[in-house]
Amino acid sequence: MATQPVDPDHGLAMGASAALRELLASMRTLLASRDDSGSSEASGRPAQVVRRGDALAAALVAYAQCQTLAPESLEVLPFLSSFANLLWHTLDRRITVTVDVERDCPALFVDAAALEEALIQTVLNAQAAMPQGGKLMLRGAHDRQDSRLLCLDVTDSGTGMSPAVAEKAASPFFTTKEASPFSGMGLSAVAGFAAQSGGRMRISSAVGRGTSIRLFLPAALDSRRG
Predict the structure, then answer these.
(1) Within a 13 Å sphere around the CA of 153, how many CA atoms are in the beta-carbon half?
(2) What is the DSSP string of 133-198?
(3) Residue 105 CB neighbours (<10 A)
(4) One short Pfam family name for this protein (predicted)?
(5) What does the alpha-carbon distance between residue 28 and residue 35 come to, in Å, rounded to a whole number?
(6) 112-128 vs 76-90: helix axis angle to the nearest 10?
(7) CA-to-CA distance for 82 and 70, rounded, in angstroms?
(8) If you ran DSSP here, which 8-state letter would residue 224 be given?
């Protein structure tokens, strides 16, 4: 089990994100001119590269804890139920999704869109660990150690990670899959979101026994327990 620290060199990540966005803006201008001339390339691989570059730039901002967040009170059961419905339409049908929210679970105080994006990144990792299908549990519960926080837990029945891999899993650009310029930012962005929101991310995993990604996030003030 490892609590994932967020790398302190956030300035470098923000600089890289800004440079990447500038490059992507130039690419969009070029693609638009090709589109005006009737070239089919505008909707092909170059456009796909731009979209993936946008996702990488957003992940760098999240990792650097520099997202523009608008936290609000968010009831856990309706949110996770709606998110599970989204997954039902997008995940491999061989993956069973279950939602379990503890009774009297407090409301969250987070940015809903940023939380959804963080959960999507977490679930994509889980899906990759279950190539033959499996079980995915979304759980909400009190944090037993800190009443100011609650825990959102995404648990899969996949291949799991060794302790060495789990320790590095939230490091920027770390991946156990075939490397590409766009891979390895998912969990580092999730960890950055959790930290910027006033919480943290923790990974629990064992080879052959699946993985749990736990997000400890602020509870809304009016729903905290004693």
Answers:
(1) 20
(2) -EEEEEEEEE-SS-TTEEEEEEEE-S----HHHHHHTTSTT--SS---TT-S-HHHHHHHHHHHTT
(3) 22
(4) HATPase_c
(5) 10
(6) 50
(7) 20
(8) -
Task: State the residue for tokens 């004693």.
Answer: 226
d(CA 110, CA 198): 9
CA pseudo-torsion sign 164, 143, 10, 119: positive
What confidence tens digit (pLDDT) does each residue in 148-185 have? 999 999 999 999 999 999 998 877 766 776 655 445 56
Output the pTM of the full model.
0.72
Nearest-CA neighbor of 200 among 187, 209, 210? 187
Domains within the chain, CATH numbers bracketed: 2-63 (no CATH), 72-223 (3.30.565.10)
Token readout for 107 is 């409301």
DSSP-based three-state secondary structure for 116: helix
Distance CA 104, CA 172 (A): 36
Tens of pLDDT along 34-74?
665 555 444 565 666 556 555 655 656 565 656 678 999 99
